[in-house]
Write a structure and sequence with these properties.
291 residues, alpha+beta, 2 domains, 6-stranded antiparallel β-sheet, 18 strands, 27% helix, globular
């Protein structure tokens, strides 16, 4: 029997040619073992709506061509169902795709979907909001908010914002409660990592694993400007856990108290939230097509 899949393309995600994606899909899936339909998302939340429809129709998978925000939007509708998530990474960061070691060449990415190897991974909630890759408060959330406002996407736009914001951004005081203990830290940012990275192989949590039932808490102090290049090298070398500027904890549930006005992002998308944040893991709750 042929598998039935829905393919969703975010027309504004990343910098890839979306018409080219549609053409390659036609070439690769013609006369294959799939019945497929391609749709373009048109607004925020549209991917979730279309994925819900796919679940109700009993499709085998929903494939999303986009970045982490698009992936999260679709995955939200697939969590705790039998419908698998497929990823064709076309975003600016593609953190979950990098973590899962998915192919980035469009043709190979579609071949990977056709192979249809599925495994379960964890997801998490932040005050009932869904996430599947990484969430954070502080500096990275501020950068995510600024990045959401620019028209030109891609790594260099993101990198430019990081440099602009870092000089003036001030560390904040946070209180974390988990596993019966309370810790207070002054930090540049605090990340909650299901996978190990933001994207583009910038690995914030080298020990994170998306199927262990735990979230990695990453408490990052502000680094002096002269040491920023070294920290950048350690990020891409998966060695950030070797520096004294970062502290790690693992847990299945954590409560964070933050100052008023400090930004929050979930899977790269800025969101409004209360000053008390509860992050909770939902173990092995999402079927994902892997390589």
């Amino acid at each position: 029997m042929k598998r039935n899949i829905l393919i969703l393309i975010n027309p504004v995600s990343g910098i890839s040619n979306k018409d080219r994606i549609k053409q390659i899909l036609k070439e690769k899936l013609y006369d294959s073992g799939f019945n497929y339909q391609v749709k373009f998302t048109g607004y925020s939340g549209h991917g979730t709506e279309l994925a819900h429809e796919a679940v109700n129709l009993g499709l085998d998978a929903v494939v999303v061509a986009g970045g982490d925000g698009s992936v999260s939007e679709v995955a939200k509708a697939l969590v705790n169902t039998d419908v698998a998530l497929g990823i064709i990474p076309t975003g600016s960061g593609n953190g979950l795709a990098h973590f899962l070691k998915l192919p980035f060449n469009l043709s190979k990415a579609i071949d990977n979907i056709k192979a249809f190897r599925v495994k379960k991974i964890d997801t998490f909630t932040v005050n009932s909001r869904f996430g599947c890759n990484l969430s954070g408060v502080g500096f990275d959330a501020k950068v995510a908010d600024e990045f959401s406002k620019v028209k030109r996407r891609g790594f260099w736009s993101y990198f430019r914002i990081v440099l602009q914001e870092y000089v003036t951004y001030e560390s904040q005081n946070y209180v974390l409660e988990f596993d019966g203990k309370t810790i207070e830290r002054k930090a540049l940012m605090i990340c909650f990592a299901n996978s190990n990275q933001f994207g583009n192989n910038t690995v914030i949590a080298p020990g994170a694993c998306a199927d262990d039932g735990l979230i990695d808490i990453c408490v990052i102090s502000k680094v002096p400007l002269l040491e920023v290049p070294v920290m950048g090298t350690m990020l891409v070398s998966r060695l950030l856990n070797k520096t004294h500027y970062v502290e790690y904890f693992k847990t299945s549930e954590v409560v964070l108290n933050k100052p008023e006005g400090v930004a929050l992002h979930i899977d790269g998308d800025p969101v409004d939230t209360e000053n008390t944040i509860r992050v909770k893991v939902n173990p092995l709750s999402l079927n994902v097509i892997v390589s």
